Amino acid sequence: MLIPKNIIVNADDIGLSQSVNRAILYSYQQGYINSTSLLTNMDDFDDAVKIIRKHPEIINIGVHGNFAEGKPLTDFAAQQFLTADGSWNVTKTAKLLQLLDTRSKAAFKNELNAQIEKALAVNVNISHLDSHLHLHTLPAFYALYIEAAKKYDLKLRLAQTYSEGVI
Asked: For residue 17, what are the CA distances in angstroms to 98, 101, 139, 144?
């Protein structure tokens, strides 16, 4: 299957698990996809990077900013968005109508930058930015993603809008 050059078919979540990583590799090899988004804060990030390095057909890699699953990479200051074990609390981060105070906004900005910089630190060629569960489309986060996309000269993928309660 040959995907036309003007069409992007993206598979989110490389780095989530070894099985997802291998499914995404298979999808590239079969020509089903031509883009993926990397979760830098998940346990199988290193496995994903090894696969990316070994397989040059894996192109158009984005950072899949994650405020929904796993743990932050930073010493995240806004503890109200985390569970007792320090993992993201998606019921708190995924609110459609939510305003962030200055401290929380700074914490999310630092975390997003850390997630992008983790991919850059291992020399993954990043082409775009998006988010796990499309949280970057929420009013609380979209400006942070626009700012990060400008800072790192990345395209910002807006695949769909978020719908609270569909998690």
From this structure: 30, 33, 29, 27
